[in-house]
């Protein structure tokens, strides 16, 4: 049983990406409706998430019959078939789904989804590639999220060069234009950290800054 007072999610398209989203939500205790037009995929997931149905979501009547309007968030994870992805998003918008998240294959596809009214457009391959690249360049980088084309949020292991210094002494804002928004220390999360907070070995700093500044911090040993 899912958590009844929690959000209801529907995931359309059970490829690698969609199935991962559906399984993660299901494991977190949410009710998930998973939809795919392929009978084999539907069979495969029938034991794993709350509800799995076979439907072609480019068909308006089928979508309505699923009661898709009652879901808080619908994720369009159809990958290869751009036309089916766009058409499904358009229909969901027309039906009045409150929050639509759609996966784009490329920038042009993403623009189209935004124009149609997708509330959030995601580029899983591009974003994952970027995150992996940052973690390859610097062993200190644990995660990387692009907030805008020139601003990013990075989770970075405290570099040796900063250990024992307070945030005021490290002076990262003036040196690199980055702000330390939180420090993870074991189980503890210090947010917001005071200027007097000393950087310890094994601390994980969560910083926001320009791509240039963040890159300089990543390059610190
Ligand atoms: P990924 O790149 O994440 O693996 P795929 O393109 O391989 O994505 O998978 C997308 C899934 O979407 C497939 O399982 C496919 O059967 C499903 N799909 C494609 N078109 C439709 C549609 N019109 N209605 C519902 N599901 C669809």
From TrEMBL:
Coiled coil: none annotated. InterPro entries: NAD(P)-bd_dom_sf (IPR036291), RCK_C (IPR006037), RCK_C_sf (IPR036721), RCK_N (IPR003148), Trk_Ktr_HKT_K-transport (IPR050721). Residues 139-221 form the RCK C-terminal domain. Residues 6-122 form the RCK N-terminal domain. This is TrkA family potassium uptake protein. It comes from Anaeroselena agilis.
């Amino acid at each position: 049983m899912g958590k009844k007072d929690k959000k209801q999610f529907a995931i359309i398209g059970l490829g690698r990406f969609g199935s991962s989203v559906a399984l993660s939500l299901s494991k977190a205790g949410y009710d998930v409706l998973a939809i795919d037009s392929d009978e084999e995929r539907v069979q495969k997931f029938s034991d794993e998430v709350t509800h799995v149905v076979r439907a072609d979501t480019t068909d308006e009547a089928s979508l309505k019959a699923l009661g898709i309007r009652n879901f808080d968030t619908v994720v369009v994870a159809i990958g290869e078939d751009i036309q089916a992805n766009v058409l499904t998003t358009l229909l969901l918008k027309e039906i009045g789904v409150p929050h639509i998240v759609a996966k784009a294959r490329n920038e042009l596809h993403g623009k189209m989804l935004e124009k149609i009214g997708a509330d959030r457009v995601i580029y899983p391959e591009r974003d994952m590639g970027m995150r992996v690249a940052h973690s390859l360049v610097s062993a200190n980088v644990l995660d990387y999220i692009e907030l805008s084309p020139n601003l990013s949020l990075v989770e970075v292991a405290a570099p040796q060069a900063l250990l024992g210094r307070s945030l005021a002494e490290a002076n990262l804002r003036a040196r690199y234009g980055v702000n330390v928004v939180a420090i993870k220390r074991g189980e503890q999360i210090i947010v917001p950290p005071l200027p007097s907070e000393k950087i310890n070995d094994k601390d994980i700093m969560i910083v926001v800054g320009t791509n240039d500044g963040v890159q300089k911090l990543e390059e610190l040993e």
